[in-house]
């Protein structure tokens, strides 16, 4: 594939993902001017087109290029006018530019709302706490500390709080920022001898402080932590609501005890990787919002493969839609399998675990949901243990993931179940024959 053909595919993929007015107005007028190495130079009518492309299309364009085997593509923009060529800023690469705007001017993503957040067992406590804070700021839980791994919805929740105030309480001054932005703004204030303005913005002119990635304060940033501590205290004393997100709990952040104790004085909630049912619901919600017709079996298949975080699911859905569009194919299991293969993931565990649950439940005349429930009758417990054993030995799943797939069981319970069935197989010929029979049925 030539880079000229790649640009045509990029435009086709963007056409599938954007509304018709947006595509016709902002993307269709763009023309490929020249190709040099891995750099595509695009002719745009004006600088506004470059900015719009950066904000709305760059990430999608890079995904399409990567999927077509061009993982290191760069974009450069020129404007061909009466006076010749005017180069517009610098090449755009796959790294977002840093914003030099004040933290108080960072924009909330308007699509990150409570209505768009898919609630499940892994995040329901965090969701409830965020809603409570939005309804009663400075009263219910202050500060609210939300922690969890990358791509699990922390920024969505903290943004939903901000968007709630933007719609319902426009008179309240909301600052949404990242810890890195806070730190850089403070450094600029010190260099410009303007700490007074910095403090005024974060104290006197702030009713709600939403701060992402507070764990970045860890390490050798004593001056930043000191300034932050006094701002933190000022807002708390004034009963102003503060919400933090972090990739770890407060106890694991390397900072002074006085700061950690302040974190611990509020409500601490975690967000865990979503369970299977929640992942399916997320895929359906994302597909609906983008106008993608996603069959149930495809949603379940992708949810079984991409288990770590929500961003993986979103990426898989984007790739699926792009392939379906420019290859002119229906969205089905075959196409989804290609997306899985291109991601480097193995789909064997994904297929087997659902088959395992259904096969074991059918053998014992139970419902699949019984194996995921907390029911403890002897029949259900034995069936559940056998299914967990097969998930471990056939599907090669980790103990924590098995626990999540069986209704949120603790990994120690899974280990106990697997060891129990292993012993029974060694000691009981009937159990050994049953397990072998189930294994054979799973291969069909």
The SSE string, one letter per element, is HHEEHHEEHEHEHHEHEHEHHHHHHHHHH
Largest sheet: 5 strands, parallel
Number of strands: 9
CATH topology of the largest domain: Rossmann fold
* Global Rg: 26 Å
* CATH homologous superfamily identity of the largest domain: P-loop containing nucleotide triphosphate hydrolases
Strand order of the largest sheet: 6-7-8-5-9
What is the architecture of the largest domain at the second tier of CATH? 3-Layer(aba) Sandwich
- What is the molecular shape? flat
Q: Quote the distance from N terminus to C terminus.
A: 39 Å
Could you give a short description of this structure?
By secondary structure, the chain is α/β, with parallel strands linked by helices. The chain contains 20 helices and 9 strands. The longest helix is centred in the last third of the chain and has 17 residues, at 310-326.
What does this structure look like?
With 444 residues, the chain is of the alpha/beta class. The protein has 4 domains: 3-87, GMP Synthetase, Chain A, domain 3 (2-Layer Sandwich), CATH 3.30.300; 103-271, Rossmann fold, CATH 3.40.50; 276-345, Orthogonal Bundle (Helicase, Ruva Protein, domain 3), CATH 1.10.8; 349-442, DnaA protein, C-terminal DNA-binding domain (Chromosomal Replication Initiator Protein Dnaa, Chain: A), CATH 1.10.1750. 54% of the residues lie in helices and 11% in strands. The protein contains 20 helices and 9 strands. It has helices spanning 3-17, 20-27, 47-56, 58-67, 124-135, 154-168, 179-191, 195-202, 222-237, 257-264, 276-289, 296-305, 310-326, 333-342, 348-363, 368-372, 378-393, 399-405, 411-427, 429-442; strands at 31-36, 39-43, 74-81, 84-87, 144-148, 174-178, 208-212, 241-246, 267-271. It has a 5-stranded parallel beta sheet, sandwiched between helices. It has a 4-stranded mixed beta sheet with strand order 1-2-3-4, covered by helices on one side. Helix 9 (222-237) links the parallel strand 7 (208-212) and strand 8. Residues 82-105 have low confidence and may be disordered.
